[in-house]
Input
Amino acid sequence: MNLAIIGYGNMGKEIEKMALERNHKVGLIIDIENLGDFTADNLQSADVALDFSQPASAFSNIVKCFDARLPVVSGTTGWLDRFDEVLSICKEKEGTFFYASNFSPGMNIFFHLNKYLAGIMNSFKDYEISIEETHHTRKLDAPSGTAIKLADDIISLLDRKNKWEQGISTESDSIKIISVRKGNIAGIHTIDYDSPMDLIEIKHSAKSRKGFALGAILAAEFIKDKKGFFTMNDLLKIS
Output
């Protein structure tokens, strides 16, 4: 495949390496220094675009790909207040869109483990839930999109929780999310169920960005000749 990478930070560079390892071509790289190259003509030379840009530009980047009739994979977080709008535009333009807050195959297994545990814990009301996420200092959004998904999945299954709050939760129906930014940490997500009797903890630690990059390239390979909206559940066939 001939790929376009939108956003050439650490993640964009890792995706480029993984694409070349899997014998793909990277024909277009768009970053802040060459926004003049971000044109429909240039996009149309690609088979799939991968957007790992900044939250402020993600929405317009994705729509520009739809306008160029180019399938797009996005892993940018922090813009999801416009997510439903993107899905509507994708449907209207008969486009192709693959979104994940986290492309790591292992993290997506963790998502399902989280939901399974939350379903069990609905009957055990003595356990208080909290989430901690730790990332490198260059990550702009907090909480991470992954932490928000973990919290939302718990809320969907736990009758006693209706929302999440960043930092110290002030209400009994909320889940506390703690965000830590330090060093060059690729991503650590920990979920605690704490009771007066014991502590149950599940944790996912990314050792590098390589797993995220592999998932993104697998997503690009998956959607190349498809139409519609897809997630990691479709790619990994996890029900």
User: Anything to note?
Assistant: The longest strand covers residues 128-135.
